[in-house]
Amino acid sequence: MKTKIFSAVGLLFLLAGVLLLFSIFRDTDEKKIHRTLDELCRIGSKSSGENPALGALKANRADKVFSPRCRFDFRVNSFDGEYTPTEIGSRILRVQSFFQWIKLETSDIEISVKENNGKIFFTGEFAGLTKTGKQEKISEIRDIEAELVKNDKGEWKFVRMNIRPVLEK
Hints:
alpha+beta, 6-stranded mixed β-sheet, elongated, 169 residues
């Protein structure tokens, strides 16, 4: 009788462990969206002395994170508008050409998913060292909101990004 109880309890613990591992390692939509944001940071970042060919290869991966048309409203006339991933990649290369290095980071990430649509709010930090002039260090922090859609392959792609208004006079 005791061995049956111990076997049942052991089986119950094993089942609970399997369910716990499954819930921890399950690939949720929120995790996929977070990976898309991480990939965007890798594409936009540039290490010191990075080969221009490597930068071009990274910029060509813009189609991994952006939908066929993506709308930007960053309140910067040279970047606002609707673009294809190829156009976005060329704009990334143009910005990178002005800097020795660029580091993009995110924090305070909030993700919400409703079927095949997702929204993400985050704080983005752009840091870099300019190539020309006094070689000054630039550091900008902005709150950003973005919308994503899930394509038929299950990949999340950005369709809109804009600066999140915080306080304006």
